[in-house]
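Re-run with default settings, no changes from the original entry. Doing this only to confirm the output is reproducible before filing.
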Amino acid sequence: MSNNLKLLMDALRNEGMRYTKQRKIVWDEICKSKDHRDAEEIYLNINKTGRNVSRATVFRTLKILLEANVICRLSMPGGNPRYSLSRVDHHHHTVCISCGRVGEFRASTIERLLKGIESDIPGAIVGHNIEFYIKCDVCV
């Protein structure tokens, strides 16, 4: 069994969900992508290859995988969120406002900043997402 398949099966089991052929198809589509895709792109790519998965199944599966923390969701300015496999290490994103290119980076400075403001925030920080909207090198 591949590591990706084991990750999917564990994620579904942890969420109390069943492993189905349709969920596996959605998972495989996310795994093979080198970039972040929105739900509609995932749906269209699956169905243009002759595999039959409903749009609702794609959206429900994305929600389950997000809750299981095996994919990440990237908010896009004025557009649909995009999804990709979660990486083991914590990271942040850059999004080009001209061409939509997505980049990933790690920044210890941001993590130190969050530690520094923890006492100013009532409650406990359990996670965060940071996206920087930029003009990439190609679009500048």
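The first helix runs from residue 3 to 14. The chain has a mean pLDDT of 86.
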